[in-house]
Model the fold of this input.
Amino acid sequence: MASTSTTAAPPAGGRAVLRRLSLAVGGGQALDGYDRGAVTVVLPLLALGGGASPVEAGLIGASSLIGILLGAPLTGWLTGRTGRRPLFLLAVALVVVLAAAQPLARDAGQLVVLRLLLGLALGADFALGPPLLAEFLPADRRGRRGAALMVWWYGGFLVAVAAGYLLLAVGVPWTWVLASSALPAAGTLLLRLGLPESPRWLAGHGRAGEARRVLRLLGDDARLAAELAAEPAAGPAGFRALFSPAYRGRTAFACLFWTCLVAPYFALATFIPQVLAAFGLDQRSGTLAVNGVAAAGALAGVALIERTGRRRLLIGPFWIGGTALAVLGLWTGAPAAVVVACFLAFAFTNAASADLCAVYPSELFPTELRSAGVGLAAAASRLGAAAGTFLLPVALATSGVGPGVLAAAGVCAVGALAAQRWAPETAGRALTATGRVSGPVRPPGPTPVRLPAPGRGPAGPGGAAAGAGPYRGSRAGTAAPPARTPAR
Done:
């Protein structure tokens, strides 16, 4: 069941910091959406004699996704050791440089290389941004703020599509449409300058004084301080720990559900002009309409995420969207009204549940594994998205629209079945609780950092009471073992 507790406003002193952090993380998500939107506008030109073969067009569309596949897990592994902040700045700085360099490419091969490197930087941001935001928030505010990140993604996609069509209409070369993402990237970089390190990462690495200074920047939020008091010392980090018996189930589930959410959408969204044309519909208006409805779905997900909980928001949309795609795949001669209704139903429900991509993976792992787990799951999702983006134009050319759309429906069904079997409910619980699995997961080590809560305000749902010991529910000064919660 989702939590029904009311959400208290953050202390006044911390609102400006959280607002700026939310904008800085949201900007990173918008950049990935913007890049996908720009590619969606450009690829039809390449397919219609824009100087690239079908294989080259597929590689241009998929290369940044392949870069994310490499950049997200690498950054997740590094940031568990170096902290979140240094790479948080470096990633967006690289996006500025690489995006602006795209018009300098002399041929398709050079452009593919540039976009591969751009994907590395965008992938780094996936492993950094959502976990960083989650680590600044108590349990009762984590869901909605995290879900709002996907609204940024769809907003960036829509802006890129509208701007791309406008730029092409006035004669701007298509390479400059791709390069236009450098402008929002520069604004995002400015927002990130001066932001603090994650207080949870600091607390888990024995840097209690620095964590306390970050808490003061946040206005001494008693709920967050209580959760930090329950933050254990950092245990083993890296991919070996992710695939240990304790966490390999969660790692596999995070990779699978994220892949099943984004692979059908990325493939269809990237080539939606061609898909709509195959059904005899207008390409530009259809593309804007489908993605506008997706943005509305993302907003609906923000409103629903704490009311329905994570499981319901994941399972229901999988089945609804998959059914809509199955209708299209089986009924390729459907009337235009049916085609539009099915595409809109898929776009809305998929976007609503895709809000979980910025929330759920961060909740499945402890602090020392959070960025690595999120990075690996993001990489897996982009592997599926890259495969779909590369294979869909081939399917359209060889088999027609029906088999390709049916394959996307099958991916949705796999995601629904996996979620029904393995998805845990994490709504309203502190990160220190949601990241735990049954059994000992850390070897004996340093005493967990204790950060006394400022005052005796109420703890957030799932958090520790003010003045509690290192673990939730323990007596002051007593290190009780982590609670045994069922592993999913």
Q: What stands out?
A: Residues 14-434 form a domain with the Growth Hormone; Chain: A; fold (CATH 1.20.1250.20). The chain has 19 helices and no strands.
